[in-house]
Amino acid sequence: MTTEVLLREGTTAENDAFTGAAGELSYDTQTTQVRIHDGVTLGGAIIATLGDPGSWTTGSFSGLLTALDGLAVTGTGLVSGDFAVGGSVGAVSAATLYATGKGKFSTGSSGATAQGNADEIVAEGSGEAGISILTPDANQGGLYFGSPTENIGAAIKWKHSTGQAIFETNKVGATQELRADDQVTNLTLSGASGSESAVFAGTVTATDGIYLGGTGAENLLSEFEEDTYTAVMTCATSGTITLDAAKNEVAFSRVGEYVTLGGRLEVASVSSPVGAVRLSLPFTVGTGVDLSAFAIGAASLSGVTLPANAISVAPYAAAGSTVLNFIVTIDAGSWAILDSAVFGAADQIMFSIRYKVA
After folding, report:
1. Where are the domains of the chain?
2. CA–CA separation, 247 vs 177, rounded Å?
3. Average model confidence (pLDDT) across the chain
4. pTM across the whole model
5. What Rg do the C-alpha atoms of the chain give, in angstroms?
């Protein structure tokens, strides 16, 4: 003859209001769940059973929790130890994990608090911490940002096989901003295909240069400088020509391989000048194919007595030279180098020239 064991039973409300003796069991007639009591806790504790489709509002799991058909988590809570969905520890396979609250994954306290607008998922550690998105070499991994209107509004992508890291926006008319130093916008990217634009809010430093209109050597802009230098006038053979200290600065602008310079100079004094007059340069003159590096500019002289048959005078830069000469065009069509002996105190030179830099 079998022995029938009956448990104390009642509705969910009745079980919730009941405090059983230590070790006593009670049965919920509404949920078909069994509770165990400890003589203290009101309502006892629900005993989970294999395959039980019910839900739990309280409880802790210190071992391995496996959900073969899915697990829905509401509210807030902490899961420690191994966690399995679909029968695979740490992986989502046959089922999907839904968390309607916020999630925090912690290996230790960092001492920091997540910002309130970005704390739905938090990864924290007491040392180095991070989040990894892993894919096979041939497949792309990404982080996507979406909204009800567009499920991919922006994305960060990486694909090992192509070696491409992509930061993109998918909305027509969207822009990308790079901000630094307390959220100050430094760079803004915008524009559709064919009208791309990159706007830098401040200065741009390109240590090795910038390619313009192509990537060949001829497209490389590697130098840019604007400044002045103190010019020095000398004589090719002997003697001196001293410029006025208040009127001896020459302005120049260098862009790539070429420099443009000019100014107005005044002679303060001379002492037995002999030979061609020379004017110092900020950069050595370069070389080129045939005579292509040779350059001539424009000049106007005040107080200087030119040869009687002179038509014009101009600054002249010879390939490889570190100084300017002044070339005089003679009436008969020949050239002559301007001699330093024609200069005296208070004479003035106003000139400009552009030449290739070495």
Report:
1. 14-49, 140-200, 225-356
2. 48
3. 87
4. 0.56
5. 43
